[in-house]
Design brief:
The chain has one domain. Helix content is 73%, strand content 1%. It has helices at residues 2-14, 17-35, 41-48, 57-81, 91-102, 106-139, 144-161, 166-180, 206-225, 244-266, 273-286, 299-322, 328-339, 346-351, 353-374, 378-383, 389-407, 411-429, 435-457, 464-467, 469-498, and strands spanning 183-184, 191-192. The radius of gyration is 23 Å and the shape is globular. The N and C termini lie far apart (60 Å). 53% of the residues are buried.
Length: 499
């Protein structure tokens, strides 16, 4: 009941004309970047961080959330019409969606993707509104040892989830943790790793790191690989609307996809890719006509798209309640909160209730905006694919540099931006994930201070971390998550040797 009252107050904030404008800008940008292959919501939010530095925090965060939701919607358009997913989570949609388009059913494929996304995001956002306060009540009772255990889970799961191997993820995290140590230590006032540079005394700016790694790194990588796509999108033939049979075959996959996507998105090792594959496998097993799979089964579009968008709302549960990002976009959104000196977690709901509930309410509004935008304006989004990639990435490069300099006019800041851009390029070149670096920079100093507070309270005895059931359980989970991938890899090699 309290959640409902808070949500009603949140709608009062979200329906403010300025916030409505921010939501509209967010969903437009999000859909556009979702459509464009290779430019995801993480890159877009990173690019806008310096630009929104002096804007209203509530409006900026509403815009970032709109970009996230829009990116999930837009990725299905290119997956269906071009067989090139705009987002990694739309890979599964391409399997059946593109086959439907080739058979002249691109319209119903786009319609079931858009309506399924709407239904899933609506249900999942309601889940966010009602489950988040319950998790907050538990998290408020956490001590410093519990928070340290939670940070360990975040470090390990983020490192294991992103990237091709846990070791590469941990290496990226180590870089972020090292960067997080730079500056003045808040507990002792001592300078750490500043190397006599006055600009480094305040630490590394999260916005500079995010823009350098995501925007500059991506531009340099694309330029180095000459990743130009000459394939042309397929024309939409016939009506865009679904037949009665399409509706009958789609509504159950929408609900099942939501049921799979939301809880997995909310897990610390979640993300949108896993639930979309699970949903596709489930629909294939439950289908009335399994022989259609691989040739354009509408269930193979409806279920994964619902799972994709439900997981986006699920990702916001640990981000808002615990401050844990479970996707690259969530990691950059965490940097957005930090930009306004806001720390996501249980205290955020107590100290800034209007901002949090306004953000949650705006997600419902953004969802309606996206449904209205996606179905009638499919032709417009497809035209975006005609923008030459060299022009697109050159514009991103200029925009990134200008935005960073406008927020922090300093030669050192520009040098750091270029340095992080080169680091991002090298990491992409050798397949190292970049999101753990941002997570390490943001959460590293927090984990450091919580550990030291716990040790101060125990007079230096590290066993305090294992004496409390909550922290002991979380440390055990983090250890298991760290060791398990290496064990599985070792077992696989052992079996290969036996064979």
């Amino acid at each position: 009941m309290d959640s409902l009252i808070h949500l009603m107050h949140g709608f009062g904030t979200a329906l403010d004309p300025m916030n409505l404008m921010f939501a509209a800008i967010g969903v437009l940008l999000g859909t556009a970047v979702g459509v464009l292959p290779g430019i995801g919501p993480a890159l877009t939010v990173a690019l806008l961080l310096p630009i929104t530095f002096k804007l209203d925090p509530g409006g900026s965060l509403i815009m970032f959330a709109g970009i996230y939701y829009g990116g999930m919607y837009g990725g299905s358009t290119t997956a269906i019409l071009l067989n090139t997913p705009g987002e990694s989570a739309s890979v599964v949609t391409a399997l059946e969606g593109n086959q439907m388009a080739r058979r002249g059913r691109g319209g119903p494929a786009l319609a079931t993707a858009a309506i399924g996304s709407f239904v899933a995001a609506l249900i999942a956002t309601a889940g966010l509104a009602f489950f988040a306060p319950i998790l907050v009540k538990v998290a408020v009772k956490f001590g410093p040892w519990d928070y340290f255990g939670l940070m360990l889970i975040a470090f390990v799961t983020v490192s294991a989830t992103f990237g091709s191997s846990p070791l590469r993820g941990l290496t990226s995290l180590g870089i972020g943790l090292w960067l997080g140590l730079i500056g003045i230590d808040q507990l002792t006032g001592q300078t750490r790793l500043a190397f006599g540079v006055p600009n480094l005394l305040d630490g590394i700016e999260v916005t500079t790191l995010a823009v350098g790694l995501f925007a500059l790194g991506e531009c340099l990588f694309v330029a180095s690989r000459h990743l130009f796509n000459d394939e042309k999108p397929m024309a939409i033939k016939g009506s865009i609307w679904m037949s009665r049979e399409d509706w009958r075959r789609s509504w159950k996959p929408w609900l099942r996809g939501t049921a799979v996507g939301f809880p997995i998105g909310a897990l610390p090792a979640g993300g949108a890719e896993i639930p979309t594959f699970l949903s596709y496998t489930m629909e294939r097993k439950l289908a009335e006509k399994p022989e259609e799979f691989g040739q354009g089964a509408i269930e193979g579009v409806a279920g994964p798209e619902a799972a994709n968008n439900a997981s986006a709302a699920g990702t916001l549960v640990p981000l808002l309640t615990l401050g844990l990002p479970t996707s690259a976009t969530a990691a950059v959104m965490l940097a957005g909160f930090q930009q306004y000196n806001l720390q996501p977690g249980p205290l955020l709901f107590v100290q800034h209730p209007a901002l949090v509930w306004g953000l949650v309410a705006s997600l419902f509004i953004a969802n309606i905006m996206l449904l209205v935008l996606n179905l009638p304006l499919v032709g417009l989004w497809v035209r975006l694919l005609k923008i030459p990639l060299p022009w697109l990435y050159a514009g991103i490069l200029v925009f990134a540099c200008m935005g960073t300099i406008a927020a922090n006019p300093s030669v050192v800041e520009l040098m750091l931006l270029v340095g992080f851009g080169l680091l991002g390029f090298v990491m992409r070149r050798y397949d190292y994930p970049v999101a753990p670096v941002v997570v390490g920079l943001i959460l590293g100093p927090l984990a450091d201070s919580q550990l030291r507070r716990a040790l101060q309270m125990s007079l230096g005895d590290p066993m305090i971390l294992l004496q409390h059931p909550g922290s002991a359980t979380m440390i055990a989970i983090a250890t298991l998550a760290l060791v398990a991938p290496f064990l599985f890899k070792g077992l696989a090699r052992f079996r290969q040797d036996e064979d």
